[in-house]
Design brief:
Helix 7 (about 205-215) crosses helix 12 (about 325-335). This protein has a seven-stranded parallel β-sheet, sandwiched between helices. The chain folds into two domains: about 5-170 and about 355-360, Glycogen Phosphorylase B (Rossmann fold); about 175-350, Rossmann fold, CATH 3.40.50.2000. It is built from 14 helices and 13 strands. Helices cover about 45% and strands about 15% of the residues. About 50% of the residues are buried. By secondary structure, it is α/β, with parallel strands linked by helices.
Length: about 375
Amino acid sequence: MKKKLIIAGGGTGGHVLAGVAVADSWVKSFGAEAEVLFVGARGGIEEKLVPRAGYKLEVLDLGSLNRVSLSRRIKTLLQLPFSLIKSALIILRTQPQAVLGVGGYASGPLVLMARVLGFFGLCHARTAILEQNSVPGLTNRILGRAVHQVFSAFPGMDRHFSKQKLRITGNPVRAAVVEAGMQTAVTPSEPFTVFIFGGSLGALGINTLVLEALPLLADRLPRLKFIHQTGEKDFERVKQGYASAGVNARVEKFIYDMPEVYQQASLLICRAGSSTLSEIAAVGKASVLVPFPFASDNHQEINARIFTDAGAAFLLIQSKSTGEDLAGIIRLLMDQPLKRVELEQQVRKFYKADSAGQIQRALLDTPSRAV
């Protein structure tokens, strides 16, 4: 008998890669009996990442409802009935044992319809959501009332979800990332390698901070190496910025083999989404966190402060920080290797082993009779 799992969601690399980690655990556990289907949104990063990970993907035509224009909301509301119908057809055709929403608008219709069809006895899947951040998003706040179980990356989620449903698992991290962390117990001192990435779409604010810092590091450039994921839109500007500074950097629009780059890095400069933080903890790297300033409920800054309050990372607020601030941190860590070691030791304490496995096993628990 096939063990079927549907993972719904996307929109960001963090949502998708957490789902991939659970899918990998599912396949590892059930082998040839495993069957995994991802459901995402048309135009999302999942259209690139899911097939590359080796899984099937179906897409819904969806927009956003939160923090968007009135015209975008109206368009989304018009699309929603069709997305619900398509979600129901996917579930009826697949008949999965479990449905997991990993965040993003695509998870809403799919998880909701799995629950509705279950009420009428047309689907027997256990439904669950994964809340990756310290503050739940709109979709998960709604779904949390309906699903059988809620998995959370951070403690304290009982303020938002039922204690009976809630399980603190940490955020799933891909096995390749965990392996990269195990292979980099000691970070090489030379060259001091700075890896900059702002998420799957890049980050204009982070890119600008780095370009501002380059002239202030002129005397250190012979000892520095830069690897920079820019995103599609900012690639040419950043590439030209390095060239103007006389820096021969590795500049790419998107880097698929993150574990390979993590192994090289002495310092990470990145956003503070939960999936990113979980990977930082798994690989045990020093980091400068620059939270996305427009994240819903400012959850990225709240995420970041959990790490920085524990002495596990540096924090720069995009609207208040300058290239001089960033250059100062890079100089500090180059001059004081023990400080970097301290950051690496502290951040590893946040790594929760087997998060994906915990979720995968819980997804096959006997569903509650409650609607």
